[in-house]
Amino acid sequence: MNVGADSHPGAGQYLICNNCQKVIRKKEQGVKRPQLHIIGPSSFIPENEILSTENNTILLLAEEFSTSGRVDHLTQVMGLHPQYLASFLESQFYLLRMDGPLPLHYRHYIAILAAARHQCSFLVKMHAREFYQMGVCVEWLKGLQYAPQRLRNLSDINKILAHRPWLLTKEHIQKLVKTGESSWSLAELVHAVVLLAHFHALASFVLGSGVNPQQDGMVPDGFTHTSVSNECVCDLDSDSSPEETFFNDAGGGETIDSVSELEALMERMKRLQEEREDEEASQEEMATRFEKEKKESLLVASTGFEDEVIPTSQVSRFVEDATFGYQDFARHGEDNPPTFRAQDFSWEVHGFSLVNRLYSDIGLLLDKRFCTVYNLTYYNMATHEDVDTTMLRRALFNYVHCMYGMRYDDYDYGEVNQLLERSLKVYIKTVTCYPERTTRRMYDSYWRQFRHSEKVHVNLLLMEARMQAELLYALRAITRYLT
Question: Are 208 and 36 within 8 A, CB to CB?
Answer without folding.
Answer: no
